[in-house]
Design a protein that fits this description.
heterodimer; A: 9-stranded mixed sheet; two-stranded antiparallel ribbon; 6 helices; B: alpha+beta; 3-stranded mixed sheet; 9 strands
Chain lengths: ~260, ~375
């Protein structure tokens, strides 16, 4: 089986985000990058599928900045076989990313049997690439997947919907499967795995190598700002029974007029 | 001047080990401390990830880590729990004599099984009456045909209750003092090994510590490391390798205490402002940070010297004494910054303070390190 895993490299969750002076993006110089946590579920699932289908190859694909290759190296240290890095800026949009991944998969010469991704990246939270990619490749796609089984030539996929209910889909191979927390427990990269990862092949292509041009950009970022600082919470004293009624009506009034939540 | 950066691979090793320490060890450190139980499940998981037995060379199935790699791993794991790291380091302490001085056949026979499944080892030097004065050990090894017969008592043996293999130091003749000392490998299940009950300790309570008796234990000649009388040299060189690891463990524990103290000092408010805004606390935190940085530099240098094939005895003792003493001071100050909460078992820092004490004692007390240093600088 040819398994592709699409990963994104995102700022570590403890990063202090600072917009650039012109507001076109965020400062990336001092960021510590990690493999997007949802993509860890995708890598783990790929490793489990590979274990059940001998002779499978796992190729990890990433589109983005090249100053650090943390995400691809982590995926290979976990056990993925090879990597493709599409060199681009850190702020490519979802459409360009999906188109670049499609181009990379085609250029690799391997016919995919399964494409796994995280359901979303934790930096911009767009939740678009898996669906765009599936559409471009003409494949079925299922997102927010928490259950995965191989069934003959296809896959039985469980997906979480509102209210805690589960939808079950049958998808033909090849398919794009976007993974959610709960699907599996990602393994840690082992130390021998980290050392082996150094010797695993990593292709580096440009956006134009995989057929993506500047004109493919659908979203231009223009004004990154930090959210306004949260005002401190309000405390209401209502220990004294005599004031409780008036305090309650004051709180209800504020919830309506100020917080606008009721 | 060399540079102070880790190689990219070492950055990844550190992150992987630290992630394991923070996610798997740290959350359960208090629980196993209270239970006084060896966390076999966690240790096995650490072994699976290649975090244990870092001294085994690639020819025998190991990862072939440098000493610098090994101290990076030791520091990271100690961040999770100094006690668990004691169980992990005790394997290295026992396997190092074999890795450094064993014959090819001995390395295959004794080291390779440790790379195939999680196994535990013990280093047996200290005796009830001989601690720092190791040249005076009384355990004897007497020639009997082609074999040797081992008799004597050992004390404070880490991992003893679980070990598959023991590296035991004994003397072929007590009157020869250090020239009679001999190191031999004793395998679990050999007739005549008697293992005592687990000691109740102040710290490192999840690690297994016991007394041992050897009663007429038959040791085949092929289990002797190098030759009879080489044991003192073997022990000394082993400790040159293991001291940076122990110093790194002190560093990891101290870093953990420091991180707790910083976080708490920013959150806890007294006199209308966070503790971290009070100069008295700032000075304590600054001193802790200086000691951490100094410890780390010494640990790295002690490891780096070995990797360069250079003598490291003096610097390894600097590292061991300084990092262990600093760990004691840093953990004590962390408790002080936490105030009453720091003294409570509900908070993590009192355990760190208890654990720190042992690192000033085992593998050469802070005073023995100073004796070694004095010998080196006066020589």
């Amino acid at each position: 089986m040819n398994i592709f895993v699409c990963v994104k490299q995102v700022p570590d969750t403890e990063t202090k985000v600072v917009p650039t002076g012109d507001g076109s993006y965020i400062e990336t110089n001092s960021i510590k990058w990690i493999l997007n946590p949802y993509d860890e579920f995708a890598v783990e699932q790929a490793l489990q599928v590979k274990a059940a289908n001998s002779g499978s190859t796992i190729t990890v694909v990433r589109v983005g900045g090249v100053k650090d290759t943390e995400a691809l190296r982590t995926a290979m240290a976990m056990g993925a076989d090879e990597a493709i890095l599409i060199e681009a800026g850190d702020n490519v949009d979802s459409y360009m990313t999906a188109k670049a991944i499609k181009g990379a998969i085609e250029k690799s010469g391997k016919n995919p049997d399964l494409i796994l991704t995280g359901k979303q990246a934790i930096d911009d939270d767009c939740l678009q690439v898996p669906q765009l990619l599936a559409q471009m490749l003409g494949m079925p796609s299922v997102s927010v997947v928490v259950g995965f089984e191989q069934d003959g030539d296809g896959y039985v996929l469980k997906r979480e919907i509102e209210g805690g209910a589960i939808e079950v889909y049958s998808a033909n191979s090849p398919a794009v499967v976007a993974c959610n927390k709960g699907l599996n427990t990602p393994r840690y990269p082992s130390l021998p795995g980290i050392i082996k990862a150094k010797r695993k092949p990593m292709e580096k292509w440009t956006l134009s190598d995989v057929g993506v041009a500047d004109s493919d950009r659908r979203v231009n970022y223009s004004n990154f700002q930090l959210p306004p600082e949260k005002p401190p919470g309000k405390k209401f004293e209502a220990m004294d029974e005599g004031v409780q009624a008036s305090v309650v009506s004051e709180v209800v009034n504020l919830l309506r007029t100020e917080a606008k939540v009721i | 001047m060399t540079d102070y950066n880790y190689a990219p691979e070492q950055v990844e090793i550190r992150e992987a080990a630290l992630k394991f320490a923070k996610n798997e060890m740290l959350p359960r450190a208090g629980e196993f401390d209270q239970k006084q139980e060896l966390p076999l499940e966690i240790l096995t998981k650490a072994w699976e990830l290649g975090l244990v037995n870092t001294c085994i060379p690639t020819e025998y199935g190991g990862a072939g880590f440098s000493t610098l790699d090994a101290v990076i791993i030791s520091e990271s794991l100690a961040y999770g729990c100094m006690g668990m790291n004691t169980a992990i380091m005790a394997n290295d302490l026992a396997l190092l004599p074999i890795a450094l001085f064993g014959s090819d056949e001995q390395k295959k026979r004794f080291l390779t099984p440790f790379t195939e499944s999680y196994k535990i080892a013990s280093f047996c030097l200290t005796e009830p009456e001989q601690g720092s004065d190791a040249a005076s050990i009384k355990t004897t090894l007497k020639k009997d045909g082609d074999d040797y017969i081992l008799n004597g008592q050992k004390m404070w043996i880490t991992n003893a209750g679980y070990a598959d293999l023991f590296v035991v130091y004994a003397t072929i003749d007590p009157s020869l003092k250090h020239k009679g000392i001999t190191a031999c490998v004793v395998e679990k299940g050999t007739k005549g090994i008697e293992i005592g009950k687990a000691e109740h300790k102040m710290g490192h309570r999840c690690s297994d510590t016991r007394a041992m008796n050897f009663n007429n234990v038959r040791i085949p000649a092929e289990n002797i490391l190098m030759k009879a009388g080489s044991g003192w040299e073997i022990a000394k060189k082993t400790l040159d390798h293991s001291r940076p690891l122990v110093a790194a463990s002190a560093l990891g524990g101290a870093q953990c205490a420091f991180d707790h103290a910083i976080k708490y000092a920013k959150e806890r408010k007294q006199f209308g402002k966070p503790l971290a805004k009070h100069q008295a606390i700032q000075f304590m935190l600054a001193d802790m940070a200086i000691k951490l940085e100094n410890s780390r530099n010494l640990v790295h240098k002690a490891a780096w010297l070995l990797d360069e094939g250079k003598e490291n005895t003096k610097i390894a003792s600097f590292a061991k004494a300084y990092a262990a003493d600093s760990c004691m001071e840093i953990t004590t100050d962390a408790v002080q910054i936490f105030g009453g909460y720091g003294y409570s078992v509900e908070y993590p820092v009192e355990k760190l303070m208890r654990d720190a004490k042992l690192i000033q004692i085992y593998e050469g007390t802070s005073q023995i390190q100073r004796l070694i240093i004095a010998r080196e600088i006066l020589n």
